[in-house]
C-alpha cells in the first residue's frame, strides 16, 4: 500500500468500575476462579514457538503461597543464544515492514486486550502479583492498552519529523531501528511495564529479547500470548524467563547488543550499566541504556494544605498495591500546626484498611510479592518500632500469604534511613517540621534521598506552590500539586525520574521511543555541480 496514512487518534482506555452487578465484575470473578484452579505451564517463546526446557521454577500466589499458579520453564545460556540468533534472523524483515504494518500489530493487541483478553490478564495480575481488581485494571488493562495505542501515535510524530531542504535538494530522515537486538528486563510490579518495555522498541522496528520478572510470569505469559494473537511475527519478541543474572549476562555479552530497556531496582540497573561499560569495546555499536529505577517519593505539606486531601493522598499514595509502586509516597513532611489533624485523619483511614486475599473485593490491599520482600519490609518495621513512633500498623503475618499491615511511623530525625531508603512496601515515614522552618524543609526534601522520581506538594497558597516547585525542580521527574504522587497516566503524565531513579526517558512518550531509533539523514541533490570551482576563485 502506498499512502500517507493517519494513525487512529488515541484516547485513554476507560477504567471499568467492577462495582457489584457490572458485567466486568462477573467476567473477572470467573477468570480468577479458572486461573486459580489451573496450574499453568509457561514455556519460553522463541521464533514464534513455545519452548519447554524442563528446568521449572514454580510461581506462587503471594496471598496464598501454598498455591502454585504456574510452572515456568527457565532459559539457560543455550536458549538465550538461540533466541538472539532467531531475533537477528527475524530483524531484516521486521525492519523493512512498513511502519503501518508494524503499528497495526500493536493496535490490534490493544483492542484484543481491551476486549477478549481483559478479564484473564487482570485476573492473572491479581492472582500472580496480588493486585486488587482496581489496581489490576489500571495497570494490566488500561495502562498497557494506553502504551500500545499512544506509542503508535508518538512514533508517527517521530517519523513525521523531517529536515528542511534548500532549493534543488531533498533532505530526508530515515528512522532506522538500532542495529542488533534490544534486551528488555522488566519488573514484577506492573504488567503494563512488562508489556511496554519489549513492545516500544519493537514498534520502532527493533527485535527484542524479553527477560520478565519471575513473580509476574502468569500475567506476562498472557501478554506474550496476546502479542502472538495480534499477529506479531515470529522472532520479533523472544520471551526468555530464567535466572536473572544468567540470562542477562549472556545477552549483555553478545556483540549485537544494541540497547537495554530496563525497569527495576537501582542496584540491578547499575550492575547492567557496569557490565556494558566493561565490555564496551566488544559491541558492534554503543548500546543505548534506558532504565527507570527506584524511588523515595515525598509528600511535602505546607501549613495551608487541605488536611483531608493530604491525609487521603498519604493513605492512597503510600498503601495502594502495598506500597510496591516506584512512585509510592514514602516520606512525608507535615508542619506542626496541622499535624494533629492530619495524624488523626491518616491514622483513622489506615486503621480502616482491610488487608487480605484480593479475590475478596472488600480488601484494599493484598500481599507483598514474596518472602524476601516480606522479610525486608518487616525489618524496616522493626527499625520503626525501635527508632520511631509507630502510629498505625507495624505488624504482619506470612503464615498464609505475605501480609504486611499498612504502617505509619513518625521520626524525629529527618535523615533517618526510614526517610531516605526505598522500602518498597506499605511503610510510610513522617517527619513533623516547625512551621517557621518551611524554607529549610524545602532544602531537606531536595537533599535527603538519592532518588528523584515522584513527589507531591500540598498547599492552598499559590505563592507557596510556586516557591516549592522552583526549590524542588530536580527532586522529582513527576511532580504533583495537591494530588498523590502515584497513578501516572500515559500521555497525561509521562513517567520517569532522574538522579538515582533512572535515565528519565519517560515511558509511554515520544522521548522513550526516540531512544529506539537511529536516524539516517539522506540528502539528494537534483542538479549536481559539474565542476569543483567556486565563484571566488575567479580573477576580477
Ligand atoms: P528488580 O531489580 O529486583 O528486578 C527487575 C528485573 O531485573 C527482573 O526482571 C529481575 O529478574 C531482573 N534482575 C534481577 N537481578 C538481575 C541481575 N543481576 N541482572 C539482570 N537482571 C536482573 O526489581 P523488582 O523487584 O522487579 O521491581 C521493584 C523495583 O523496580 C523497585 O526498586 C521500583 O522502584 C522499581 N520500579 C521502577 C519503576 C520506574 O518507572 N522508575 C517502575 C516500576 C518499578
List strands and helices in order, with pairings.
Elements: H1 23-36, E1 40-42, E2 44-46, E3 49-51, E4 56-61, E5 64-73, H2 77-96, H3 99-114, H4 118-129, H5 133-160, E6 169-177, E7 181-185, H6 191-203, E8 207-211, H7 217-229, E9 237-239, H8 244-252, E10 257-263, H9 266-278, E11 288-292, E12 297-301, H10 307-319, E13 329-335, H11 339-352, H12 371-387, E14 389-392, E15 396-397, E16 403-404, E17 407-411, H13 417-420, E18 427-433, H14 438-447, E19 451-452, E20 454-458, H15 462-471, E21 478-481, E22 498-499, H16 510-514, E23 517-525
Parallel strand pairs: 1-5, 7-8, 7-10, 8-9, 10-11, 12-13, 12-20, 13-18, 17-18, 20-21
Antiparallel strand pairs: 2-3, 4-5, 6-23, 14-17, 15-16, 19-22
Helix pairs in contact: 1-4, 2-8, 3-5, 4-5, 4-7, 5-6, 10-11
The chain binds nicotinamide-adenine-dinucleotide.
Residues 185-190, 193, 211, 213, 244-245, 248, 263-265, 268, 271-272, 292-295, 326, 422, 424, 453, 495-496, 501-502 line the site of nicotinamide-adenine-dinucleotide.
